[in-house]
Amino acid sequence: MVDQDGFTFEEVVVERGSVRALDGFSAHIPATGITVLFGPSGSGKTTVLRLCNRLEVPTAGRVCLSGADLAGLDPLRLRRRVGMVFQRPTPFPGTVRDNLTAAAPDAPAEELERALRRAALDGSWLDRDAGELSGGEAQRVCLARTLVTGPDTLLLDEPTSSLDASAARQIEDTVRELTRDGISALWVSHDPRQVRRIADAVVGIERGRRVEPDLGEAT
Predict the structure, then answer these.
(1) 146-to-140, 142, 165, 174 alpha-carbon distances in Å
(2) Which residues, including other chains, have CB under 8 Å from residue 56's CB and lie 6 or more apart?
(3) Which value, to the nearest 10 degrees, does the dihedral of the CA atoms of residues 214, 34, 37, 24 take?
(4) Tens-of-pLDDT digits for all 219 residues of the chain?
(5) Cα-flanking dihedrals φ and ψ of residue 196, to 5°?
(6) Distance CA 204, CA 42 (A)
(7) How many of the other CB atoms lie within 10 Å of CB of 181?
(8) Element (H, E) at 169
(9) Burial, 122: exposed, middle or buried (Cβ in 10 Å; 0-12, 13-18, 19+)?
(10) How many other C-beta atoms can be found within 10 angstroms of the C-beta atom of residue 99?
(11) In the chain, is it the N or the C terminus that has fewer CB atoms within a 10 Å radius of its CB?
(12) How far apart are CA 32 and CA 178, in angstroms?
């Protein structure tokens, strides 16, 4: 029997005009640890991620969270449970505090500081100018901005692809620590070396369909 916790995709099709971004995709994403969605560019990875918080909806098939069809869930409540971190860091103009309160306007200072700590920063960052952050710092602030809403699951769309190796490892370590703290993560990657470092489970995808992931030989 399949564990109902987490996301379940049941023969999901997503059509855009004459193109099928997903073509009968079925998979289970557990509600613990880091699950990596692995495949080449254009395989449908980001589409899967966007389905998880209803930035897209299926043309056919079902996406469920803990057994509940996403089609029946309120999108705004869902997006508080399932937070997205995009490929390129996108801090808003203003301070780091401004960025966090944009996501959680009523959050007290201690919650803002806790979100920063969980993203491997601290309260001293609140008054920093978000426009002056390095790429790795900006991505951690964006992660904190997602965490301040209290999500159960993180959706990470190649969050380290625009970072240098050191900053990328910091993000990997931070997300690993978050999973130890009870948050699950669905991480999109096309880098087999990264997958071998971070994955608790791997879901392969190619041409919009589930495939057996081929990570090659470890080097």
Answers:
(1) 10, 6, 23, 13
(2) 14, 47, 50
(3) 110
(4) 345 689 999 999 999 988 999 999 999 999 999 999 999 999 999 999 999 999 999 999 999 999 999 999 999 999 989 999 998 899 999 999 999 999 999 999 999 999 999 999 999 999 999 999 999 999 999 999 999 999 999 999 999 988 999 999 999 999 999 999 999 999 999 899 999 999 999 999 999 999 999 887 544
(5) -65, -30
(6) 13
(7) 7
(8) helix 165-180
(9) exposed
(10) 24
(11) N
(12) 11
Cβ 101 vs Cβ 128: under 8 Å: no
**Residue corresponding to tokens 């995009």:** 86
Longest dimension (CA), the chain: 51
For the record, the structure tokens of 190 come out as: 């096309």
Range 52-67 burial, b when 16+ CB lie within 10 A, else e: bbbebebeebebbbee
- What the block records as the tokens of 111 is 């919650």
Instruction: Please name the amino acid found at residue 209.
Output: R
- Tell me if the pTM is above 0.85: yes
How many CA atoms lie within 13 Å of 135's alpha carbon, on the beta-carbon side? 14
- Candidates 84, 96, 91, 86; CA nearest to 149 is 84
Residue 23 tokens read as 């073509």
